């Protein structure tokens, strides 16, 4: 043991002794008994207690020891001559702490030097008076543990190892002390989410779900009997007390909106507490590292977390919000401000600030946002990935998702960097992706800032600012992160890189991506990189590499759902109406919103530009003129969309390459000539070249799964106007037959010929989620889009009208089943609503068809959950329990047990 090792203070309570041998001569009366406690050569002694066989002291002493391996000796003896009492007990400090950790008394055997058992002594040892470390000792240990390993070991001659003995104590956590408290918090979080859903408050609900996800993971760890300090169990009890606020919310749900800011802070603090418990228990990103490097400062940190929760609960009760910061598990250290801004300025810009980015509306894009948050905060077992790539066609909403995710992490104090390369001005455009990332890392963490400044100012090497990209990444990113070992133990830290394809010079993004994915193993595992990019060939190649796939999670962002686009239009039209006092309160109509939503076809960029087009001098007239235009257009000139399409095409390939131009024209020519989407096999390129290669290069404007189609019909309109597209290679002159061909009749024909009951031969006992792949590609797209090609101001020829009537009377429930298989059952009612509007505005004399559609809409909404749960429930759950016999189906044929149901309970159906 080094003489420089820091002693640690303990509280020793000597309580009593029992079963001591009685004096042989009773006439001598009771003994005067004392206990001496000795550790590392220093002793304390109790007062004298007169007793026969049981002594009681209840005295408290402060003792010190440098090592937990030191032995505590307890000597019980008589204080007067003529007594034979002399017995003792010994135990290591670490063993005694383990047995006393939860304020429990311990009884030790007392034995004589020559005789056997001579009684038992009851004592208690702790590091604190109330279950937490004494502040002074916590600060001392934190100082020792915060030293760099190499210098600390040299300076203390083993001090770190000595303190590690203390932190290595491992005891099971009593379920009653922590696990049950967290179960109670989870129950209340789940209860709150149900109340919030009913109250339709989407702002704070995502934070509640996030808190539930992370806290549930922490609960599983505690149930597994992890080693955890008493103060963490106390924190769990505090969390349980704070979450009694859910009872008040249940009584007055409207209070969610009034106090959503305070409630949101409670949820965010809950996430921090749960992440801390997970990391401290050794089951997080840092493994056992946290207990070895930060254990001494744990109680002070936990006390701060608990106090914040208590303060927030007080704010909830009073309804008065004051400025309070979340106590984050991440520890930020102030560094010198001398010349730091000037030095960091050499890195250049880090792009557009997060606060300037548009985010998803509350409640929209929930699936992908929740998936990213779940991946970043609570990785599944065996998942070694630390890079999430979100790619998709131009204008699909990737940047909005990136900004939303980054904002969530920022609210939790877990955002390590946000760099946006998306179409910024020359002053804001980052120089290189590595410099931009380093600038953002420096802005978010003072410890990293100090290291980055040191690297920039390092005169012993060539300047890092002019080094090759791989060297910049190694010196500015890898070594900077390695300079802060504690970073690995601070839970997940998100680094968001938006619109990577726009960064630097051409192909800079590809070089950066290559360096990043190959260096992932050199980075702390708790760094969670989230990258958005257009679906271009290099991105596809990088993220499908068999060598790197275990480190990467790739996800294509598809078109927004009908409900998301509709919510956006409702939000924007409300903004426009509030700006224009002369606009009527009921503007626009529900039918107009439905038509706008249908025209967007899930394409967010079109929705944005359409809203901006309406937001002008006379919004009602602008909206009317927009809805009277062909589907593909917003106006003759549409600079924002045109700029987007030009940028997407320019990045697709080399337009001076004759072969690439030839393939592009062959692919687009096939698409334009077809009245609907086409399978890959229908595209033929010269010289038998594979169509997949150029289609992947055109991934910013084309999708090819399951069929090849453009990102939005307006893109074809862009290509058909030489003035708008600006290049002969992109220009396609087409006639009215090619542009105006209405595919609705073709879609109805496909559905009438392909749909049937139980089309995938499913059973009710097991729902095979891969059954969607069994549907033909042409039928899939027909089911998903037929209603969007029936336009309110258009007409159907007699043949198409006959097919519509046949479809509504014969195959409507078959279509319900198919949409459930495709996980699109939520689109059924909006699509039928569009058909009902069309039937209403075309004023058919026979009103029964419109009544049939309205009845089907009611049916779809009433049994939405059943239809979504299993495709066959439309026949065996929804149909039998509908009121009366629906007019839109052959009830007796599709519900064969109907005539028995008034008397019998139907036995379980195993196969259809």
TrEMBL record:
The keyword Coiled coil does not apply. Keywords: Repeat. The keyword Repeat applies. Transmembrane segments: none annotated. InterPro entries: C2_dom, C2_domain_sf, NPHP3-like_N, P-loop_NTPase. It comes from the Eukaryota. This is C2 domain-containing protein. Pfam families: C2, NPHP3_N. Residues 1-110 form the C2 domain.
